[in-house]
Sequence to fold (121 residues):
Amino acid sequence: MNPETIREYCLSLPHAEEYFPFDETTLAFKVKGKIFAMIDLEDTTWFVLKCNPDRAIALRDEYCDIQGAWHMNKRHWNQLNLFGTLPEQLILQLIRHSYAEVVKKLPKKIKQQYPEILSVE
Fold:
């Protein structure tokens, strides 16, 4: 799966935005101010997503192309090898899961104000 397809898919999620929070090459995607995905535009091999901790471990055990994310809390963040053998549908499903994990932690007021963000997973 290529980075432009990932970018388009992330931005198709309700209220998703892109920005460069750390430097000019690390593109992050956020919903209501909280990051749910990141990719380095200079080295697009790895794509970083938030994940439920139990599921993160299970995914790493099942797929050699999923690892704990470098420079992130490995309990909550996975990195996916985009040039490996991961099926495209799995990557898309994990993007939705990451988005939903972030939305779950948003304040109740925001979830009530923007109910469309709850429809993803």
